[in-house]
Write a structure and sequence with these properties.
Low-confidence stretches of chain B: none
Number of strands of chain B: 5
Largest interface: A-B, 30 and 31 residues
Mean pLDDT of chain A: 88
Largest sheet of chain A: 5 strands, mixed
Strand content of chain A: 25-35%
Helix content of chain B: 25-40%
Mean pLDDT of chain B: 92
Oligomer: heterodimer
Shape of chain B: globular
Distance between the termini of chain A: 11 Å
Radius of gyration of chain A: 16 Å
Strand content of chain B: 25-35%
Amino acid sequence: MSALNTLAGEKLHAPFPSNLWATTFMNLLNTSKAYESAAKNWEGAMLFIIQADGGQALFDIGCWLDLWHGKCRGYKFWVSGQERPKSDYVLTGPEKNWMAMVDGKLDPIQGLMTGKFKLQGNMAMVMRQTTAAKVLLETALNFELDLVTPDVRDPKAKVLTFFDKNKKKVMIIDTHAHTFTVVQ
Amino acid sequence: MEDANETDEDRFFKTFKSIIDSVVAEKEKTSKWAPRLKKFRAVVQFRFRLAENTYLLCHLVAKDGSFQLIRGPIDPYDLELGAAPEDLYNFTNHTYSTASMVLKKNVYGQRRLQLKKAGRHLVKLLTLSKILSV
């Protein structure tokens, strides 16, 4: 956890996507009494998609969370071109809107209701579980959105290697085989 | 890739369509609601205020148990509901009461729920509010 800034009141820094980001997020969620209580009836995996919009992300990148009765049981990453993991809910938005959300400039529910994000799935369930959805998204506000960047900016390159801010290798994408490996 | 050129209005419309589809699908499974949904006939226009100067018009056509949400205006309609989306969301999940929707103001200084032709179609309005309620 050396890459994390864990000082009270400061944002956590972990490259996204990375195993470090996902395990830290899961840990925050699984130790949150607020989430445990709000999401005690929640059943269903959610895929969060950051849409490439000309910012740092070259591709749509997603994080899939297996959410079950107030706990997160697992995670996966996804990049566009791959088959999507089976998800009950898919929350999609352009990178700039995710950035605004993690900066605290955009309330998650308001963002959803003003079209900054799109949510598809059993909305009747989400509407009954608004607090759970809000706590889930607010947990992500603990992080800076440190998107990893590729070594080359050509999305058609066969292999793209992504690095974090410290130039450490984080992820390798084979754009032809539609596979990727999360290194960290 | 998801469509990166989607606008806020596109995304909101898809989310709202997902809301309508899922609340109707959930109610269709209950013996209390299934016959009522089949009987409900209405053309309802929604006027959503997404931002200071941004509105989205769409309409719901309910007929023979089918509920179709279509983007764009329609004329004639049975009734029109105008609201900021977050207020309607808070109404359907019981955060806001009917009285608060009718009497209180939204962030734009308008009533939270603005109605047209509701007097003539009060039963349709009441049924619709129950259908949308989760």
